[in-house]
Amino acid sequence: MISKKCVIYFAKTSSRLVTSNIDKRNYSQSNDVPFLKFYKNLMGESFPEKKLEELKKTEPNLSKITSDSLKTSLGVLKKFDITPEEACHNPHLLCINIISLDNYGEILKECGFIKILPIHLIRYNTTVKSRTISHLKKDGLIREAANLEETLLDIFQEWPINEKSLKKFSDSTTNILTIRMSVLERYLQWRLSITSDDFAKYCKHYLPLKHRPMNDIRQSLELAENVIKLDRNCIIRNGCIISSDPVNTKLILDNVESLAGIDIKEAIKMVPALLKNNYKALLEIKDLLKEYQISEDAQRRCLRVYCMNPDSVRERLEDLGGMKEYKILSSNPRILYMVVHQRKVLNRLLKIQSAKKQCFSLNSLISSRNIFNSYMTSFGSKVCSRDIAILILTTLNGTNQKLLINDLRRHKYWLHTALNVIYENICMLKRDFNDKVILENCHLLLYPGSEIAKHIDSFQKMRKGQTEKTTDNYNNLNYTTLSDSQVLSLVLYEIERNYHFSGDGIWTNQDGQREQSLNKKIQIHK
Questions:
Q1: Which residue in 201, 283, 284 sits closest to 243, CA to CA?
Q2: Sequence spans of domains, the chain
Q3: C-alpha neighbours within 13 Å on the C-beta side of residue 57
Q4: What is the pTM of this model?
Q5: How much is the pLDDT for 31?
Q6: 525 pLDDT band (50/70/90 cuts)?
Q7: Can you say whether the dihedral through the CA atoms of 411, 415, 417, 420 is positive or negative?
């Protein structure tokens, strides 16, 4: 049966959301809020109570700002000649993401802003989208004689002058964003030979691209082509490379030597989206997977896990760790797909349970929608052969997957035994038999555990001379000389003897008739 863990997951998630809301600190002068302390130390007085009440509503996250992030934000603002006093009077500035704050300021500098004021950063979108160039010149933010298009084109020194062209936008009807995107599209067309459709996709799917300084984009492409050695087609296919933060990329290359045993440059070639994650997050996830003993082989098969937030990875590993299904599949080299696609996996486990199918496999849990729907609507309940082989071999220290599958195929119903039944049988048999013996009698793992235990107990007692013979079938057999392998072979014989060696012994009492009837239907349809 499917474990109850997946049933209660969504309730658990909702509980977390409620708890997180309860844990939010309220603003008050008595609270140890770094911004309020900073304000009092700098201004010599407490933050005005009236403004504090308004701030609670407009910036609820200000109380979460740490001393370190406060210092970093002030350092960024200093680049644009915004003083700590101005920041105190405009606390909204400190709530803007630090990278976004830096990008906004750099973009305004690239556009030739004479003076960058706090309000320009706070209302950045209004400044670049809603204000025409004429409006900005009238307000004295840009020089009257300046041509924004020429200013932006001059940033790209490697772009030959004879290949640059002016579209001569009208200042009275055009905003900063329109001109920036036009120049950027032409630059990428020259450098990468992209199409207009490609650029439209970048703008739609990679929002940071619109608000990334031109110099950052140049540096990102330099790193991609000359350091990481990504080919042009790869860059064109992955807009995240163009929109990546060059500073973060350098930090990744300098601090992350490898992921899953793969050189970091090769890993980026395999999954360019790694550049979207913070370098510290990559290192944290790497340590986290090591803590949970996820093999490098499993990591190599799902490098996408490194594109996630470390807190999400930890939370999902904790949630999945308590599930029986995860424990059974944990040795599967594709196990991290359960982490990446956790919600899909849990939804599918619920559907499998609702359909009263006894078998689940990693293949069905993470496959495409069409494959899963086909599995759900098919007769009977089947497991992926590879998942069975991996479970048996990893648990019993086997190596030859092809040989094992060929051996198991001799049983016509071998794909109809649930993985949890096989796993529980392995755990039970390992208490009395070594791995090699169990592998030699691998067909026994397909049968109900209660039947196996009953016959093993009987033969073990007879082998030890603790009970008299209970059947006339083995009158000439010397029980005391039976090897472990022979005992398991006799157990299989005893189970199947009642079913005329048809293989029907694998069905449990409650599901036997249903499964057999379904399989008869399958044979008819064939």
A1: 201
A2: 394-521
A3: 4
A4: 0.81
A5: 54
A6: very low
A7: positive
